[in-house]
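Bit of a strange request maybe. I'm writing a small parser for structure token strings and I need a real example to test against, not something I typed by hand. Could someone generate the tokens for this chain?
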Amino acid sequence: MRRPKKPAAKRSDLANLTEHAYRELEEMIATLELAPGTVVSEAALSKQLSIGRTPVREAMQRLARERLLHILPRRGCIVADSRPDEELSVIEARRPIEILVVQTAALRANTDERQAFERIADAMAATLASKDFDGFARLDAEFNELCLAACRNPIAASMMQLITTLNRRFWFMHHGRTLPGEGVELHIEIARAIARGDAEAAASATGHLLDYIERWPRKALAPLRFS
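Reply from user aminoacidic:
Good idea to test on real output. This should exercise your parser:
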């Protein structure tokens, strides 16, 4: 006799809850709601998120593999620190992958995706004019997800997801909720280049964006070189 399929459904439910717990915790860490050095426990996070302990435990293990949490044996976890030298390493790894992502997105995006990139560019311009940080943050997340979908490269997409979280957290640590004018303009330039299928322009604007982002950890490290 065949086994009933109900357990498979339960595994699917667990996977969905684990993904939800991961997204919630990743957002809390990236935006410093859970600041570096914060000790967190499976039980406390389960209660805070109203999600069972098993999916929360699996989400925490995933975040630990991604270097956002450090597991403390029999004590829970501590939110990992973020140092300027580590940020430079992240940007070094990010540069070739992100350039690949935007180039392939420009070449492979379908009509609906190109229209979405154009819409996002217009909306980002509006947030810059109104100095709407929260609006830009939402659009930036949508832009990132659209790039990963349009590039049609799941390996590159998976690698970029971790890098993006680490970069977001560094930004919140050092700039808070300041709207980055030059950074927004470069995002708009990238989005419009992808929308019109110009892979070279998308790659060039991405390189300039990463140069811009790289200034901050280098500036933070400069006093240490002379101390």
